[in-house]
Amino acid sequence: MKRPQSIRTALIQFVIVPLVVAMLISFAVLFFAGRLLRDSILARQRLTIQTLAVQSEQFIAETDNLMQALNILNSDEEQKNQFAHFSQVRNTYARFDAFYILDENGTVILEDSDSFSLLGLDLSGENFFMEGQYSQTTYYSDPFISLTSGQATVTAAIPMQENGGFSGVLVGEINLEALQQAIEGVDLGEGGTSFIIDQQGALVAHPNSDWVQERRNFGHLPILTENLTAQDTYKVFYDEIQGEWVIGSAATIAENWLIVVLQPALVAFRPLILLGLVSITLLGLSFVLFLSLELRYLSGIISPISLLAERAEALAEGEYENLPLARMGEYEEIVSLGHSFTQMVDAVQERDRFLEQRVRERTAQLEDLNKELEAFAYSISHDLRAPLRAINGYSKILVEDYADSLSEEHIQYLEKILDQSNNMDDLINALLTLSRMGRRDLKIEALNLSETVEKLFDGIFHEESDHEIDFTVSSTPAAQADDHLMTVLLTNLLSNAVKFTRGCVPAVVEFGAQDQEGEVAYYVRDNGVGFNMQYANKLFSPFQRLHTAKEFEGTGIGLAIVRRVVKRHGGRVWIESEENEGTTVYFTLGDMDGKV
Fold first, then answer.
1. What is the pLDDT of residue 296?
2. I want to staple 77 with a disulfide (CB 3.0 to 4.6 A). Which of 81, 481, 484, 489 is the partner?
3. Which one, of 386, 403, 204, 281, lies nearest residue 26 by Cα?
4. Residues pairing with 140 in the sheet
5. How many whole angstroms separate alpha carbon 106 and alpha carbon 167?
């Protein structure tokens, strides 16, 4: 016979492993696809930066060479020939808008410009003069809007030497059209942009030339604060101006300019996002496929367990037919569970047979014991009462007929004999009443206990009370109980309340009901002598008293009768009391519908 398969093994083999493998493959595909896409984006950005860097550095190098050449010519030729050189350079290289020569004090002494004249103007406070006179190479100023051309311009400055000493500064205004054209010629795809800025974030060139004219500043970009000049560096950050996440690269070119390339991350990684969605979709479809393929394995678990649950419910209800289970499914845990359940059914049946036999034996013993108790009760009722009556009768005769012949002391002895015989008769009656509580058949009906209490109290008060009592009865819910037993119970409780309030002014007795943990608790409350609660456990036992017979009369069996009645009704009884503060006796009744 084929050995049953483990549920755990089946789940791991046919469900968990395929799902884990599919998830790992999906994550691996997404990971490597993400790296490839990132490398592709960065490679394109680096290529763009390298291309722009070559063009920009070539532009700057040519400008440096031209400025150096003009500086040499200016130092060797007469002033009248310098205009010709300036004009020739401007006509040949459109990048120059104007040339100026400043003397050693920063005053314009020579110019070549198509716009207004600056001759004689003191420019010693300008950065290009202050920095240019000490620069070993061509100094480039920050971008600004030229007064001569009205376009974005930078100033190139180089010191002039004459006879080995500083004689002035050669200044050229350079327009940025060549760099602007290079930037506008870059195609980075949807949303991509490249631009050149200085270290402070001022635009040198940008695809949107209006931004350059407006002198927009990109100093807010985190990319300016990071060293991103290496080829393998990049940064993903949130651009607050554009309101989107971008991936950017940057590199420093000649002087202090940076080339920056940015692409919206959502656009750049769109293929990866689509791939992720496709992977999740495929993973979901795979899960559905695996689940559909494994339904037969799952049904091999669910069906036997459902059958086992049905059989267990039947067993709990005492039904034993068709309970043993044959081979359950194909998994070893289910098969083992079926065998264990069958063994349990056999054990339960055997135990029930044993218990039924024990019950029959104990029932027979109880019946015999009840018969003995009935015989004992009969003996008490007749055999013990006959000599008791004789004692009582002869004592009365002596008291009544021979009172003149007996001394006062002898008469007192006879009266004590009479009192004790009467007490003994009361005890016999109480014992008989207690024994009958367990043998009498119950007749359950709806009772209004408040009305019963009012009738009982009137009789008890008139017969037993020798003091005024403030009696209160509240309306209570109907009780399902035996009328006779309830009368016995309430009679004992009310008699105690009347008895133990003797001497209280005013004396108060109350009957009512209240909710106790979801059930109705009836109570009889008085403001009598009360007692110490540490002795409360004795009160429901026969003949247990907390007060002497001289203080309060009684047999000490009333609360035992109350407890027996409450138990027969499936309820519970308890007492709350405090010395000289009164006592409250609570009792509840169980669900007696349909019980007899």
1. 59
2. 81
3. 281
4. 156
5. 10
